[in-house]
């Protein structure tokens, strides 16, 4: 009993000693940045709208000017972008916690590619076309790939080390990408439908897709937030967590289900957008420390900020068209991944 009490005290000391005194400040800054990103998303695009048009589009439904209608069409895209960014941010934070891998991310571990394979297979062989069908196929692909990568990464001495998981994810992603290409090439109609989705974009966000996405977002977020405290204990090692009465296998399963729900649903509707989970979780960890009770909810806000501002940047760079947001996040995230891999030497969290 005394051993269990001492272990509990050590956990409390570790995380309370990192208790972020500047949490309120960070939260306020994130809130301000989120508000600015929302305004930018509504105002910037192939057509720049004025402040008056922005007000008319948001608050004066009887105004029928072109600018006001442009703003109204951008509202659903902005909301969709916020939700997708939040989902990917939390998914990345959960994957890093479950695998104890500081560079874990749905795109790095091959989960996005697994979802892509199942979606393209659904288009080619089952003629799927609705958002609801896309989600279920993507969830199945994401779940199977996550289990496969973790299983491969767990083989051999040392179990699922960060380096082995990244290598397993990279190899799996490469193999699945080849399968995606093999399915698409002989079927031009599949390629036409799939190629724009594959890049990753929030441009197709509509109220229908938001409503379809919302249940998966809510369930995944709740599971992630409620498992945060137990995941803090898991960060100290399986033995310590077991001493504290935590069922580590069940905890990993719950957190993994949450991550797959968030990642799979987002990938189904917006395509495989990479690096959001990596960027958002590390930004919050850098400011507030290792406590997942703060990292997980604030990763949702930072993920929403990063994806929304990336979408705005893509619209500005590609004007009068647009550069897909998946290209922008890859351009930003790839150098960060290299820096983190060099700095952290892919050590465990």
TrEMBL record:
Give the main localization category: membrane
A molecular-function term among this protein's GO annotations:
transmembrane transporter activity
- What GO cellular component entries does it have? plasma membrane
Could you tell me which InterPro entries the record lists for this protein? ABC_BtuC-like, ABC_transptr_permease_BtuC
Q: Which UniProt keywords apply?
A: Cell membrane, Membrane, Transmembrane, Transmembrane helix, Transport
Biological process according to GO? siderophore-iron import into cell
Pfam families, per this entry? FecCD (PF01032)
Q: Where are the transmembrane segments?
A: 23-44, 79-97, 109-128, 134-153, 165-190, 210-232, 253-282, 294-313, 325-344
Top-rank taxon of the source lineage equals Bacteria
Where is it located?
A: Cell membrane
Q: Which family does it belong to?
A: Belongs to the binding-protein-dependent transport system permease family. FecCD subfamily.
Record's protein name = Iron complex transport system permease protein
Q: Which organism is it from?
A: Saliterribacillus persicus
